[in-house]
Amino acid sequence: MGNVGHMDLTHRVSVPPPEPFFQAMKASVKEMFFPDDPFRRFKGQSARRRAVLAFQYVFPIMEWAPTYTKEFLKSDLIAGITIASLAIPQGISYAKLTNLPPIYGLYSSFVPPLIYAIMGSSRDVAIGTVAVASLLMASMLGKEVSAAAQPGLYIHLAFTSTFFAGVFMAALGFLRLGFIVDFLSHATIVGFMAGAATVVSLQQLKGMLGLQHFTNETDLLDVLRSVFSQSHNWRWQSAVFGCFILIFLLLSRHIIGSLKRGVNPPSVSELTFSTQYLGLTVKTGIMTGIVALAEGMAVGRSFAMFKNYQIDGNKEMIAFGMMNIVGSCTSCYITTAPFSRSAVNFNAGCKTATSNIVMATAVMVTLLLLTPLFYYTPLVVLSAIITAAMLGLIDYKAAIHLWKVDKADFIVCIVAFLGVVLRSVEVGLIIAVAISVLRLVLFIARPRTSVLGKITDSVGIYRSVSQYPTATRIPGILVLQIDSPMYFANAGYLRERILRWMDEEEDRLKASEEDTLQYVILDMTAVGGIDTSGISLLQETRRNMERRGLKLALANPGTDVMVKLVKSEFVDSLGQEWIFLTVEEAVDACKFMFHTYKSDIPNLTTMDIIDAQANV
């Protein structure tokens, strides 16, 4: 094809200077685990100042407390009292959902909010128990231990599962592995939460219909079978009263609750680490921890976005973990930042995490003085409270939005929903995580590639011809854009896809009787990284092109890509002159060679062409 080395190219792709291995490894680890650079605040500070900053980093309350104002206190008092009015009845109801005595729902609204107020970084979330994690814990523990037959053991296992959930959360934060939670995509969360809310609501039919016996399974078919097989035992009075309470709650959103006496007793001695139940409690802790983290992190980020401030995801995980570890030692079960309670906190005008302290104080007063008042609260009222809260989690608007924007995301949402409703909450969670990981794998293993053409009347602007149909293809030159790193997971696909693009381009040129294909340019702008499999892909593609009489050129490979291409000697085999800074320069060089080659055809022998190719 000729040699472009003599061409006057303004720019060349530079090769970065070599970097020592350990220095490069240190930079990679820092970028992976510390993208927010938490140590930046310590640079250039005295030892005393560093100690203060470290203390503030671990306990954020020490950072904002010195600037706390009376205006903030007024707002937080109102918000705290407001969410306490919601936390008390919800706490009782969700404890019932977990098959725990109601008092543990109040305990869980006392200690964990205090821990979070000290260690959490969000100003808006309200801490407490959540229905989905409660149902998941009841479902998983209930398969091994009956809460009715062995209530003491069941409570011990609930505390131990909460302990392991806290350890799991805190470990993710300490090890900077918070990105693992991001494997639950928005679509899967919408479907999973809707499915879980549906299952929880169906479970309340036991209380709404006044049934004494009910299935321990959570799937739709078993629940409906249990309900209709006992139709002769339905109590219409309970059903009417429950519907009345439910309608009242849905219309007014004002809930009044009540409970028992005495603050949280210690429960360290009740944690059970026997080998017989260790696997069960660890598995339950991890599963409930994932659900709690997914909801808590999503809620915290959402409200932080509304108020235009940042939360530290890893610090949040540590805070969630510590409040559950401490909670498990003080008669509490799994807690996080529920959306309904946090939304009330946000709308009530909270300013800081002090609202959680106010809520905890109100719960403490209730525990000490008011709990006997709730002794005769009908179960149907609790069922109505749970159902009212659950209906708000079925976000049909989000599902409609997914359908409009991304049909694939909608399918993921529906599959996660059906997994929960038709099987169980834990199976639905596994399906949700599996779908999210599968989608990630598909994005990596099947990256987008596209043919580029020049935008009419532009200066060096090349875009996808499928997005811009008026973009002009360059005769004899195929410009391909690769939109992902080139790794072992997608090397095989990219190899086949590039060859297919070449075949399709040759067929198109043949059908239109245009110039034959001579050059293929790979736009590497979006290729952020490459491994040895990716390099082998380029080597094989180059050799395949040479056998077909074509020439490969690269445009704008990044720093990491260029370093590896040099070390692997691919640059030497391709030729430095065939690596360009921009697609425009690559096209201009190929045009020059293409037209020079065409004009010399009458005077060229086969050996001349082979020699010219060898010199490239």
Task: Please tell me about this protein's structure.
This protein has 616 residues and is mostly helical. It starts with 20 loop residues before the first helix and ends with a helix. It contains 26 helices and 6 strands. The protein has 2 domains: 73-442, no CATH class; 447-615, Transcription Regulator spoIIAA (2-Layer Sandwich), CATH 3.30.750. Helix 22 (532-547) links the parallel strand 4 (519-523) and strand 5. The longest helix is centred in the middle third of the chain and has 32 residues, at 275-306.
Keywords summarizing the entry:
Transcription Regulator spoIIAA; 616 residues; single chain; 26 helices; six-stranded mixed sheet; disordered C terminus
List the helices and strands and how they pair.
Elements: H1 21-33, H2 47-58, H3 61-64, H4 70-97, H5 103-107, H6 111-119, H7 131-142, H8 151-174, H9 186-203, H10 205-208, H11 220-228, H12 236-252, H13 275-306, H14 313-328, H15 339-347, H16 354-370, H17 379-391, H18 396-405, H19 407-422, H20 425-445, E1 449-454, E2 462-464, E3 477-482, H21 488-512, E4 519-523, H22 532-547, E5 551-555, H23 559-567, H24 570-574, E6 579-580, H25 583-599, H26 606-615
Parallel strand pairs: 3-4, 4-5, 5-6
Antiparallel strand pairs: 1-2, 1-3
Question: How would you concisely characterize the structure shown here?
Answer:
60% of the residues lie in helices and 4% in strands.
